[in-house]
Amino acid sequence: MSKAKLLFDLILYVNAKRQFTAQDVANEFHLSLRTAHRYLSELGEMGVPIYAVPGRSGGFRVLDNRLLPPVLFRENEVLSVFFAFQALKYYASLPFDIDIASVSNKLRANLPPDTRKKIDRLGEVISFWNIKRSVPSPHLKDIIEAAAENRVVIIDYESKSGNFPREVAPLGIFSYDGFWYMPAFEFARHTVKLFRTDRIGKLRKLERTHSPEMTLHDWLHRYTEQKPNAPVRLYVELTREGCRQCRSQPWLEPHIVVNNRDLGHIDTIIDRTEIEFVSRFFFQLGTAAKVMEPREVVHRICELSRELLEHYG
User: Fold this and answer.
1) Taking the CB of the first residue and of the last residue of the chain, which one, N or C, has fewer CB atoms within 10 A?
2) Contacts of 174 by beta carbon, 8 Å cutoff, 6+ apart
3) What pLDDT digit, counting tens, does each position of 108-121 carry?
4) Residue 240, C-beta contacts closer than 8 angstroms, at least 6 positions apart
5) Is 150 left (phi over 0), alpha (psi -120 to 50) or beta?
6) How far does the chain reach from its first CA to its final CA, in angstroms?
7) Which one, of 234, 295, 294, 239, lies nearest residue 268 by Cα?
């Protein structure tokens, strides 16, 4: 076996074992103990995060953020990876601290010039566009880990009814229109509720576990069946007074954009079940606000206006 092939197989071995001794390596690859130590040292110099554990029961361990072995891609597979990154670049937060630029540079470094040129050219004519949101979601990794482990978490959640702790069991996360969402079983209400992850102030994992009766994919299937096209976009034009009024609402304040003429707008996402509440709120603002989307809210405000006219007519 060539040295290059042996080192490649050794990378696969240590990533799979996580904890091992030099004697284990020697036995696995039919090497002397001295040669096993030398090859492990070479892996460390290559960037594989191996560290020695002292003591009689010691050996070697691989850090959690371990280096993966090289993978051979066809050109179309490389292109698909780059354009998967395109779908993520409009998100302010990504799970697991994904460094798209770093991964892209590593992939590009080993590509032939004609493939790099093709990627650059296609990147100019194809985009998976989302509205770019500036609101961060710092707890994505913790939510994913909690969902994978069926762990219960306590979150401080900002909603229209105020901020207070909620004990929930996350099903997972999904993205929609530039935002991340977390369906989770809420123990106080004994049902699965939908939470915007950027509205989670604090998150604390508990030792307790809970297995919801459905998976994330089950919930998404039921949710889209029961509530077509939900969530929906809320776009509202505001006068100066409208901006002032909306700033007093915690559920709206983060989404207000004001221009240099003191006029503003709101561009966010609401759940379809909130349409009645949102309609009544903007109805009471009168001409200080003008809802442009969704049309359901516009129609409901018109109905409320007619009801008021009939009441005083």
Assistant:
1) C
2) 180, 181, 183, 216, 220
3) 777 788 888 888 88
4) 262, 263
5) left
6) 94
7) 234
By CB atoms closer than 10 A (0-12, 13-18, 19+), residue 51 is exposed
Q: For position 52, which CATH number holds?
A: 1.10.10.10
Ramachandran class of 131: left when φ > 0, alpha when ψ lies in -120 to 50, beta otherwise: beta
Could you tell me the CATH number of the domain that includes residue 283?
3.30.70
The pLDDT tens digits for 202-254 are 999 999 999 888 899 888 877 655 555 567 889 999 999 999 999 888 788 88
* CATH code for the domain in which residue 212 is found: 2.30.30
- 3-state helix vs strand vs coil in the chain, percent to 5: 45, 25, 30
Which residues of the chain fall below pLDDT 70? Answer: 1, 54-58, 63-72, 96-99, 130-133, 160-161, 223-230
> What residues form DSSP beta bridges with 194?
183
Of the residues 195, 226, 257, which one is the last residue of a structural domain?
226
174-199-136 Cα angle (round to 5):
75
Domain that holds residue 8: 3-62
- 193 burial (CB, 10 Å; 0-12 / 13-18 / 19+) is middle
